[in-house]
Amino acid sequence: MQAVLAGISWNDFDNIYVVAGIWIGLALAASLISIRIGLSVALTEILVGVVAGNTLHIAPNDWINFLASFGSVLLTFLAGAEIDPQSFRRFLKPSLVIGGIGFCFPFAGAWAFAWYGLHWHWHAAQIAGVALSTTSVAVVYAVMVETGLNQTDLGKLILTACFVCDIGTVGALGVLFANYNVLLVAFAVATVVALVFFTRVLKWVVRVFGHAVSEPEVKFVFLVLFALGGLAAAARSEAVLPAYLLGLVAAGAFHEDPRLMGRVRGTAFSFLTPFFFLKAGTLIALKAVLTGIVSVLLLFAVKMIAKSAGVYPATLAFHLRGKQALYTTMMMSTGLTFGSISALFGLTHGYIDQGQYSILVTVVVMTALLPTLVAQVFFHPRAHHLRWGSRPPEGGESPRSTSRSAPTPSNRG
Predict the structure, then answer these.
(1) How far out from the chain centre does Cα 194 lie?
(2) If we measure between CA atoms, which residue out of 337, 338, 335, 333 comes closest to residue 311?
(3) Does domain 60-269+285-389 have CATH number 3.90.550.10?
(4) pLDDT digits (tens, 9 = 90+) for 201-247
(5) Would you say 384 and 149 are in contact if contact means Cβ atoms under 8 Å apart?
(6) Which residue, 330, 331, 327, 308, is CA-closest to 381?
(7) In contact, 332 and 311? CB cutoff 8 Å
(8) Domain positions in the chain
(9) Are 378 and 80 in contact (CB under 8 A)?
């Protein structure tokens, strides 16, 4: 036996199939755990990533980074596509107010605290403000789909408010740090052209080629996302911004064609997004967290206080009460996709150092975990109907009485 094993080395197992098997195995374990304990699979994947990264020392390589990156882009696109135009128009005012305040308060608070309290230099403090101003579209969308809230008034309001908040985050990152050159102009022009023609061409592809087994309509979506992502990277912008906008303008087409939505969503949730969430967990180095634990806790507190101080009163102004208001506040306090992207942008371009990056990413992932966990366990609302923008039903029944009716199966999620 020893003679047989003598020529075998651990290096023989360092190949893409073994690495892929390990990551998919972790994703499967996270899925089974989440089903067993009733926790969001996105959060479970992050926690599994933390354990695997710090005990098994698993780290992402180039192709895993690619899968995780495209997973975040596709999740962002789907989050935009989930916002049906009618709901966006109905909740336009509360979304602008809640989302705008949800961006401004933590952006200013984290920027000021990093500058005055932690004595970070000016650009590092700006990165802190941008990274902690976000609401995680990836986490919120994943939770909305899992619980069925994406089909309810409350879920649609939260998603539209997330859209407004993250547009502010990406806009701030672009305004503060963009390279104003011809590539940025080309990227902006290409994005506008894509926004104008994307839905028309997508409908034409579906009408002419149908839903064939080869799924040409899905490939077309991926092609546009890759093309705009390539231009965004060349212009030192971020691929998630055009993805979000494309999803929003194509929302009508996706709502009219559930089969198309199902195909894209199936690709995202079954294969791509586990790499994104697992990678987010592996980025947390527990030793670095312990070393900078005071800064981590203070920045986390600053974000949570700023979000709560701004979002909760705003929800009350639009007739959200009780658990609806608290749940919305907690979900608007999450952060992951744009926060991690902003921190990595700062590290890559030399605005923050490795220690500051570790602190920010840890805070970002904490905001993905703790507010979502609190929202799901303590504040998950039983009533999902909102009075804002609704018309009283015929026969004089008030919207308030509608909210007391028996929940639908999706509401019980």
Answers:
(1) 22
(2) 333
(3) no
(4) 999 999 999 888 889 999 999 999 999 999 988 887 778 888 888 98
(5) yes
(6) 327
(7) yes
(8) 60-269+285-389
(9) no
